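Dear colleague,

Thank you for sharing your sequence with our group. We've completed the structure prediction you requested, and as agreed, I am returning the results in plain text so they can be pasted directly into your records. Please verify that the sequence below matches your submission; if there's any discrepancy, let me know and we will rerun it promptly.
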Amino acid sequence: MIGLVMAGGKGTRMDHSDEKLLLEYKKPVVFNVIDALQNSNCFSKVIVSTSPNSPNTKSVLEQNGIETLSTPGNGYTNDLNSLLQKMEGFLFVISGDLPLLDEKIIQIMTEKFNPENVWTSFLVSKNFLNSLNLESDLLINYDNIECVYTGISIINADKIKNLNLVKETYIILDDKRIAFNLNTKKDYELLSSS
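Please find the predicted structure tokens below.
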């Protein structure tokens, strides 16, 4: 399985002059995600997807020997779809803005994953997210529970080459390590005060 970090967004909701994934929380946020993936020992390699929206992130990653892939920067979904057409096997796709992520939660997620499923997305319940003073508008109702996407999926790239719709499987995992992604200035202030 390959760890694929999505790091090509504009970070417009952040309202910050620096690129979001280079903001510091102990270290630049994107490096926390990369280190967690590498330290989990679950992946044959870790690759970071960048775009013209994140030139400084790409430069810093490459200076640190991290393999990058370029995408057009046309939004998360479009960039991910373009990558899925070029890649093979199982991909652990994760947003680069999860400052609390660690290797243990990654190991838990890969253990819960069923390789029979083509696309598995990890969710947290909206109630849990709100208990952390966080909000999201990426809502989905699953199993009669209002949930929020975490930006983490395990995808079998071999099974989606034709771009047909595939059945998405969901796993609810209420854990702050995957619930807390850095989207707004308020999130960063909350993180900095914790």
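Summary note from our side: Strands lie at 2-6, 24-25, 27-28, 45-50, 67-70, 90-95, 119-125, 139-142, 145-156, 168-172.

Kind regards,
the structure core
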